[in-house]
Amino acid sequence: MNIQSDFQNVQRVQGAEGIAEPGIPVTGQKAGEASEAADTASLTSAAVALSESAGACDVRMDKVASIQAALASGDYQVNSTAVAAKLIEHMQANKG
User: Which of 9, 20, 39, 68 could be joined to 28 by an S-S link, Cβ 3.0–4.6 Å?
Assistant: First the structure.
């Protein structure tokens, strides 16, 4: 899941022109346009929380690194019985 990409899609849907940290203005001015006063915007607490969570990672990087190392060395073993059991369980749960 790419949180940054999702956040940019939210901006497009809401018509946002840019992201600013709290208290930093966002200009609505396009390159080459002159303006006497800059437009400003501020983020709500929900937007600030969303922005901060974009940097959060719920991936267990230690586990990812160990699996990548096992794959690279050829030592990664797949438990085919467990995979088959989970596949059957998933198929039975999603009948319908």
Answer: 39
CB 55 within 8 Å of CB 49: no
Q: Which H or E element spans position 88? A: helix 80-93
Assigned token pair, 49: 């929380």
Determine the Cα–Cα distance for residues 52 and 46; give it in Å rounded to an integer.
10
DSSP H/E element including 7: helix 3-14
- CA dihedral for 39, 43, 47, 48, sign (positive or negative): positive
pTM: 0.34
Q: pLDDT at residue 14 above 60?
A: no
Q: What tokens appear for 63 in the block?
A: 């586990």
Domain borders along the chain are: 3-53, 61-93
Nearest to 54 by CA among 23, 15, 14, 9: 9
